[in-house]
Amino acid sequence: MRVLAAIYEKELDHEFDLVDMGAGEDKNKYFPSHIPFGQIPSFEDEDLNHFESRAFNTYIAYEYADKGTQLIYKDSKKMAMASVWMDVESQQFDQTASKLVWELLAKPVLLDMSTDTADVEENEAKLAKILDVYESRLAQSKYLGGECFTLADLHHLPTIHYLMGTQSKKLFDSRPHVNAWIADISARPAWLKVLDWQFAKQTVRN
Known about the structure:
Glutaredoxin, 2 domains, cytoplasm, two-stranded antiparallel ribbon, 61% helix, 10 helices, 206 residues
């Protein structure tokens, strides 16, 4: 979803090559050389093959800097600040938030497993502290990386989207600047297109 959001922000042409994992297509001789850790999806652009969404988005932002939304700064100091928050997302926010998605959504809804309430309580406490830092930052600037929407904001969208449908939504709602930021980035046309695509894909499967 992160890469598709970046593609839509950049207004790039793209196509999907569906992999039948049930038939073992992800284990054939092609995929191990391109996705050494067995991660799906993977991404290709001409001769570039990649399996890490954040890294591929960075490539998209630089390679197609003249198209669509400017997801990076040309100014090195501004880009340094945006990069800090890109790291915060991957190393702080997502490390904790993804555990909540697992416990509150994946386990009970997708896998018919019981939620570990102690784990939820622990990670909600951790996420609350992280969001306190976000609240302070967003009181100073419209977006995490500065006054413009960048990859630092975009990379949060999938995990936030899932958590907003769980009890952890209260952690975002209780912080006015964080809440306003989420409302802003979640209403971007590119992200709404991602959600439309996801809904259409689920409808076809059902």
